[in-house]
Amino acid sequence: MSQEPFDPQAPEFGSSSSNAYLSFKDLRVLGLILLVLAACLYPIYQYGKRKSERSQCVNNTKAMSDALGLYAKDHDDGLPPAYRSDGRGLPTLGATGLAYTWASDLSGYMNPRASFRCPSASDAEVAYVEDPTSSKKKIAVTYGLYLPYGGVKMFNIENPDGTVLITETSNRGANGSFDPKPLQDANGTPVDDAFVVAWNDSNDRPSSGSKFVTRLAFTETKDGDFKKGFARHDEGSNALTATGAKFNLTVGQAVIRQSAKLPGGIWAVPASSAR
After folding, report:
1. What pLDDT was estimated at residue 153?
2. At a CB cut-off of 8 Å and minimum separation 6, what does 146 contact?
3. Residues 39-60 pLDDT 10s
4. Within a domain: residue 5?
């Protein structure tokens, strides 16, 4: 029986059409495997991403705590004002059209690797305030200072380790957050307001009718329902007490506990804030 002569250019595994068919089939199987793996790994990726962003947010709050301590040391134990305002308590805007706030004052004391913006915050949640170093720059902010303690002396805070000083916030009701009285300028125009935490009935001083604090980074709370909302992080929003201690603020803690006709507990205010 004779054999055909060997052809070195012949396909190794049969005809080219058969080889192409097998390659196409293999690619389909490989693509299906990759899709299944991606679907399985995506939740793990999202979990890791949330944890990383949460860690950065914790680092931000620690940096703000350190910056507050340095600022207070340079200002006779005083805290920075919440924002520059006119005689009616309305924010005065600089040449940039932005408010000058506590974050503007603290920016020079902040760790350069930290930020006033939480990496989990959406663009809509960000307030922009003046950068004191340049009129061409601005500072992105998603943390707010609790209004009654802007500009006060640290030693005048009665329960510093149990009073919220700074916490995560959302700008102008973004993502369904609670902001029934948006901050306005002297012309009545709404301005970015995520840099300050105030009350449901006032941006000036609380009253016996104050029930909630505003602008916290809790979605689905725009109607004042703090039983169904969600915090920016799974564990809750990062917050600092007046002594710089960090804790997790949960949605239900937006509700004020009245004490002697003034907010008490973690939202305590000085008696001078009464009206």
Report:
1. 92
2. 163, 164, 165, 166, 167, 196, 197, 213, 267
3. 776 666 565 766 788 899 999 9
4. no
User: Which string of b and e fits 24-45 if b means at least 16 CB within 10 Å?
Assistant: eeeeeeeeeeeeeeeeeeeeee
Backbone angles phi, psi at 249, to 5 degrees: -95, 125
Query: Is 65 in a helix, a strand, or coil?
Result: helix
pLDDT the model gives residue 87: 83
Structural domain harbouring 53: 37-273
Q: What is the pLDDT of residues 110-129, one digit of tens each?
A: 999 999 999 999 999 999 99
Q: Which long-range contacts (CB under 8 A, 24 or more apart) does 84-92 make?
A: 86/186, 88/186, 89/203, 89/204, 90/184, 90/185, 90/186, 91/183, 91/185, 91/191, 92/185, 92/186
Residue 216 lies in a domain: yes
Task: Tell me, yes or no, whether 221 lies in a domain.
Answer: yes
pTM for the model stands at 0.83
Domain count, the chain: 1
Q: Do 274 and 261 touch, CB atoms closer than 8 A?
A: yes
Instruction: Tell me the C-alpha distance between 113 and 97, whole Å.
Output: 27
**Domain annotation covers residue 3:** no
The answer to whether residues 173 and 179 touch, using CB atoms and an 8 Å cutoff, is yes
